[in-house]
Amino acid sequence: MGVTIEDIAKAANVSPSTVSRAIANNPRISEKTRKKIFKIIEEMNYHPNYIARSLANKSTNIVGVVVMGTTEKAFQHPFFPEILRGIASVAYKNKYKILISSVNSLDEEKQIVGELTQSGITDGIILLSSRVKDPSISYLSDIKFPYVIVGRPENENEVNWVDNDNVSIGYKMTKHLIDMGCTDIAFLGVNSEFIVTLDRLKGYKMALADHNIPVDEKLIVEGKFVDDAGYELMKKVLDKGIVPSGVIACDDFLAFGAIKYLNENGLKVPDDVAVAGFNNVPLSNYFTPPLTSVEINAFSLGAKAFELFMAGANSEFKSFNRAIIPAELVIRESTQKK
Amino acid sequence: MGVTIEDIAKAANVSPSTVSRAIANNPRISEKTRKKIFKIIEEMNYHPNYIARSLANKSTNIVGVVVMGTTEKAFQHPFFPEILRGIASVAYKNKYKILISSVNSLDEEKQIVGELTQSGITDGIILLSSRVKDPSISYLSDIKFPYVIVGRPENENEVNWVDNDNVSIGYKMTKHLIDMGCTDIAFLGVNSEFIVTLDRLKGYKMALADHNIPVDEKLIVEGKFVDDAGYELMKKVLDKGIVPSGVIACDDFLAFGAIKYLNENGLKVPDDVAVAGFNNVPLSNYFTPPLTSVEINAFSLGAKAFELFMAGANSEFKSFNRAIIPAELVIRESTQKK
DNA sequence: CTGAAAGCGCTTACAG
DNA sequence: CTGAAAGCGCTTACAG
């Protein structure tokens, strides 16, 4: 810092206006002065003051990313950095910067969102949230602040959002287990707060219905979505005196815990029980047995979220857009019964 | 946005100066006017313009976090979000915001660091880097820009940095394996670019020396540090016709891959080969067998990094500070020979 | 093609 | 205890 547009102007014997225009590639500046100015900028290692520019422009080219942190452990889940990397990648190409806020409760989220939107520090917000009730969403809509949600929201037609088709994902996974010969399939990790789990459950039920398998509520276990609670959830099922032939867990981590419990109780995966997860964490491939999962393409989720934000920023016609990111079933040993 | 300090001033029948002072809790403002002003601020939902304030203050209360992204997959490693969460947590308490930049090469890092430091957008930088040669470090020092490195740098006495004591970590882990009866211990994942791996190797060698075990260079395998390359690295060792009684991998992910290869070759962990990793990823506990590792307390690394930045910002006496975050050996089944 | 001037929304030294 | 004014470093409509 230190060297300002004024310094450049003096050194180049022009006005600050001209320097500003040269930098902005304003075509009204002659090639000659432009060259002279750029040479001096180089020599003096001048970088425009981002803050002053933002104040004059009433736009910062900064996008706020708000994440639910500690409480849900979402931050620790491998898909989180992947989403962030996706956002950052597209943001970078568009000369945007990313301000990241980790919040620990809906109250804190509300406060942060209030500040980010009102203080002029961000041009838009990307919310990593798939909660059923998220007051920030309606707030953002009310004040017409540009934002995109990663995770299908309740009022999906009044919001810009990006997500996988989790109903279809749940369906495909269930169908896969049925194809493998499972009929009594446990479903672990439903959480009424998270739409993603409800959607996957919906797909599960649809697949069962399509194959004339009645839904057995005893096989559906509520629990934390992203956590190491799979061990406990699996225990709950076995404690009911049921040994399902298949298990679907809402996240790979749940599946790992479930498998651990099964092994401890003398049940082999996949031969006694086929087990699958979702989200294809890096380790699924190294687990014993390698875990069948679903690749949700988190990088693309993030990248697309930013693209949606940009599209909104550049269009004068207001609309609510959504993008569905394809997900692929990754079949591994944990569901391949011999 | 929209409502400015001027609007508040008019509504309160005072000058903008007075509003500004009231907000800043300047004691010269009477309790009465202060109350009046705050009431109106509340009513009109006024939030000071962060950008204007920053321009006037010549300080943004934003800290830039620079991460090596794609290439090294560091972003995907669970310790990364943990570090970030630690930084965010302390930053939040100090009313700082975090701007995150993911870079894909040293060149890109250089460019981003140049921009972050020169454009006035950040008050300081936290670099997540433990590379042996990082030109950004000397650059930041040269221009005397406030910064903290997570990861011990080469010129450790001229830099603010935070890290574990990786030599000691390597020593402890090696000693643990020796105590378990291993004498020929392979060391996987040394990478001359990353000081952390060199430090752990150093500790390994020291432990061997202290127990009168000669170093066998054939047991030391270079490779990517954070990746899923453990399978290949383990193969390299066995291909030499060596079956070590113990294996230390520089990261848990490497250890997972190594175990997979051992298993495929009929070797049981831990009875035939004891295996340990570092960094205690969430899954180590669920792996079969549960993996011995080292908890590096990544959250604390991040939190402390920000504290170091704050300490530097608040002190008029320049100094180079470092903080060593304690790490704990987490002994699990993978190294417990019967 | 270029410049002088006003303005973005704050803060703060100076004056009273 | 409060206000008028200058300034932070840019951008841009207006004028030439």
Comma- or semicolon-separated keywords:
DNA-binding, Rossmann fold, homodimer, six-stranded parallel β-sheet, 434 Repressor (Amino-terminal Domain), alpha/beta, 12 strands
Structure description:
Chains A, B: It comes from Clostridium thermosuccinogenes. 2 copies of one chain form a homodimer. Chain A has 338 residues and is α/β, with parallel strands linked by helices. Chain A folds into 3 domains: 5-48, Orthogonal Bundle (434 Repressor (Amino-terminal Domain)), CATH 1.10.260; 62-164 and 299-326, Response regulator (Rossmann fold, 3-Layer(aba) Sandwich), CATH 3.40.50; 166-295, Response regulator (Rossmann fold, 3-Layer(aba) Sandwich), CATH 3.40.50.2300. Chain A has helices spanning 5-12, 16-23, 31-44, 50-57, 79-93, 106-118, 135-142, 166-179, 195-210, 230-239, 252-264, 298-314; strands at residues 62-68, 97-103, 124-128, 147-150, 161-163, 185-190, 220-222, 246-249, 274-276, 293-295, 322-324, 328-330. The first copy, chain A, has a 6-stranded parallel beta sheet with strand order 2-1-3-4-5-11, sandwiched between helices. Chain A has a 4-stranded parallel beta sheet with strand order 7-6-8-9, with helices on both faces. A two-stranded antiparallel sheet of chain A has the order 10-12. In chain A, α5 (79-93) links the parallel β1 and β2 (97-103). In chain A, α1 (5-12) crosses α3 (31-44). The termini of chain A are far apart. The relative contact order of chain A is 0.12. The mean pLDDT of chain A is 90. At the A-B interface, α4, α5, β2, α6 and α11 of A face α4, α5, β2, α6 and α11 of B. Chain A binds a DNA duplex (16 and 16 nucleotides) through residues 4-6, 14-18, 20-21, 24, 28-30, 33, 48-58, 120.
